[in-house]
Amino acid sequence: MKKILVPVDFSKPSENALKVAAKLANKNNAELHVLHVIELAESLFGAEQFNVNDDQIIFFMKLASKRFNEFLDKPYLKDLKVKDYVEPGSTAFVIKSLVEDHEIDMIVMGSSGVSGLEEIVIGSNTEKVVRHSEVPVLVVKNEIKDININRVVFASNFELENVDAFKKAKKFANSFNADMHMLYVNMPGNQFSSTKEIHEQMRSFLKKVEMPLDKKNIEIFNDYSIQQGVLNGSEYLKADLIIIPTHGRKGLSHFFNGSIGEDVVNHSELPVLTLKI
Questions:
Q1: Degrees (nearest 5) of the Cα angle 154, 159, 161?
Q2: b vs e for 70-98, b when ≥16 Cβ sit within 10 Å of the residue's Cβ?
Q3: Residue 259: predicted pLDDT
Q4: Which of 39, 108, 131, 181 can pair with 21 through a Cys bridge, CB separation 3.0 to 4.6 Å?
Q5: How many CA atoms, within 13 angstroms, populate the side-chain half-sphere of residue 192?
Q6: Mean pLDDT by 10-residue block, N- to C-terminus, for the chain (277 residues)?
Q7: Which residues share a beta bridge with 221?
Q8: Where in the chain is the domain with CATH 3.40.50.620?
Q9: CA angle, 119 as apex, 5 and 95 as ends, to 5°?
């Protein structure tokens, strides 16, 4: 984790994310890349009439740069290597480009969450980044005064496609010397499994990552949906951080099936780290 990207919009959640990212950068001797995007409609990209040198765009960029410099004048950034960017465009699009161009290892984002019709139809920038990002995304809502994470929950169905995500999660937890608890959400109906069946599935999974089955670090939590189970199970375990793999579904598949990772990000008060599988 040598390059950490933090998109900011001058809101309180984005400042909370910046504080967390600064602590992570300090802990890992990493570069901090801080981005502010001047939002433009995605429909303008590629259009012949769209020109980033337009006088109005330059005017707004100068205003944003001045405010950005004031926003970055923080004591906790003084001893860090910070690179800042002001770019016009769609936030999700600009983030994706910057991640690829600068080989970013992790994104840390603030979020206030969305709900209702906005959650179904529009989504938030954070939600879009979680859905599309190929690198881990840490989402922060509330201010975290102490980043010393002691207990991490890795929520999964423990199918073999999640092995790589588990290895990354374990490495992240180890960097804080944190205990990692594996959470399986059991639901009524056709998705119900017996304790024995779940343990067998976990045993096969852990064999792939060369870890023994330790029932002290396994929690089978019964609930009415996976999202509720992850949130309630993490609260029950008194977790400091939730780590969850995400498929990053797109288009109609996302609309009809949703994404558990995005749902958890939207509704969790705890920080959430999503890992693409």
A1: 90
A2: ebeeeeebeebebebbbbbbbbbbbbbeb
A3: 73
A4: 108
A5: 7
A6: 91 90 90 87 48 61 79 90 88 92 95 52 69 91 80 93 92 90 90 89 89 85 93 96 81 52 87 91
A7: 185
A8: 1-146, 148-277
A9: 20
Is residue 209 within 8 A of residue 91, CB to CB? The reply is no
Q: Which CATH number fits domain 1-146: 3.40.50.620, 1.10.1040.10, 3.90.209.20, 3.90.1200.10?
A: 3.40.50.620
pTM score of the predicted model:
0.84
Q: At what angle do helices 195-208 and 163-175 cross, to 10 degrees?
A: 80
CB distance 187 to 222 below 8 Å? yes
Q: Which fold has domain 148-277?
A: Rossmann fold (3.40.50)
Integer Rg of the chain from CA = 20
Give me the pLDDT at residue 250, please. 55
Q: Residue 119 has what pLDDT?
A: 40
Tell me the residue type at 186.
N
The token pair at 3 is 């390059």
146 contacts 261 by C-beta, under 8 angstroms:
no
